[in-house]
Amino acid sequence: MSIYPSVCDKINVKVANVDVVKEQIAVTTRQLASQAKVGEKVEGTMMSESKAGIFFDAGYSRDFLAPNNLLSKPKDEYTRGEVADLTVMQVDGDRVTVSDKEDVGKPIATFVRGQEVAGKVVRYMDSVGIFMDIGASRDALWRTKGPGATVLPKDPKEYAAGEEVSGLIITRLDAAAQTLEVAMPGAEMVETSLSMETLKVGEEVSGTVTKTIAFGVFVDIGAERDALYAISQLEKPLSEYQPGDKLEGLRVTEVDAQRQRLGVSARPVAGEYDVGQEVTGKVTKIMEFGLFVDIGASVDALAPTALLSKDTGEYTEGEVLEDLKVTRVDIPGNKIAVGQQAGAGSSEATTSIDKLEVGSKVSGVVRGIREYGIFVDIGLGRTDALMPNSMLGDVTSAAFKPNQKIEVYIAQVDAAQNRVTVSAVEPTAEMRQRYIPQGFMIPDPKRHAEIIGREDLMDPEPIPWYEWAEKFPGLIRFNEKDQVITISVRAHGFYGEKELRQSFPTHLPVPAHLQKADAKPASKEDFFVKLEDQPMPNYDVGIKPEIHTKYRQPPLNDPNWREFPVPDRKPITMDFKTIVERAGPFEPSEKPGLKKAKEADGDD
Asked: Does 270-340 carry CATH code 2.30.42.10?
């Protein structure tokens, strides 16, 4: 007997992933990976190996990753199909990190900032501090350099591996980055001559080489941490640099206190280049979106596809480009963009935004495809026009390819914001007013009608409100701001007016078994509402009626609006208590069938 469902069988599935650009939806009958719990014990089957670690199938919608540092043995000793007991260490959306170690320690997410801990010294690193084993899945850092560094009770080099230290508290915890930091309560902060919080890109500094590694040289410039002098930026071979060497004339190329990144170089930074300056460069990396080019600066310049004279696939690494111009300079971020002077998307625009006319047809080239629309180069230089999904006509973004030549209509022009909106079809008045057609709304009535099988509910020719507004000025007015409409939770109907009304005040005494010991005994009268002693209905106590009226939904916020015509008569001024007293007690009338029963029995 097959365990798989037959054709036409109904099964319950969950949406595991949605790719709007590719128009693909992945579903699963399994439990979602995001539903895994940190610390949970699961059983997994080894599925594949990667540079990052081993992937296990634990019965969820996505395989779990056991990174190299959380494996109980070398990667090459695992075999496909091998079963292992796993501990969930981290859950980040649908990405789950696990470990098959028995003594892996507690997940970092189970610790809290300010928690007191004790630990053993694992190792000391001069660049950051002492790493401590506090029983977590990752060693905690007792920082001696960098943000939050403190003065230790003794010289950090005097701490021996395995030495126990108590009285520490957790000062920093980042479950996503899997990092922990500890310190002694009330410890003095380490003072530095420079601070990463105040350092700026391009600032000139000097320093001393502390160590050399395969990808560069670390230099002490007096900041909380050593700066990296990348191997691609060095002025001489790496082997010629020795610890203790003094380096002058360096400039800060990168500074990020949050991520603890600090870089220096002797080459020019972005601020030393001018837009329009002609440069020569060598291709260092080829990407789908463009080329990275070494122009002699402290960072490789980006030549985007829109500013190249040919497709990226026609270039080779190491190729020299002599017809480059600087098109953009980001001084704080130390980033440079360049383009070829004869490029198809050169910064030399073939038209200007002031010459564009709404409704006119122009030629363009697809430059980018996003989930919300298409970016089209229509000859505005570095400014691409946006063709949103609502203006693609009967096709989707999947029908377009990068560098595809198309013809589009100008739908909107915003010269102040330097923005242009185009359409694949001739734009109507609704589209020019940012109208979202049925089929692109969230929630969408067209899709809802298809699901319930009631296409007859959809108007084949919806009312063209924006066209009417243009054709008949003053007939239709639109709100300047969006208005929130209240609907029921299940959206089965519109109850906005009812939900905006205030409820009637009601007296609900506390039952005897829930009353305090000194409470007075509940009487029969306590369970009845005395209307004559209550404030006017529909208004909260202490709130003026005009306040309620002002913030109700139109037309209820208009004091002069009436649902039914009001008779032309003089109003009678009377308070609510008087109205109740005049009405007297409620006396129900006889039921219709009661009188007939009495007559049949001969009662008068």
From this structure: no
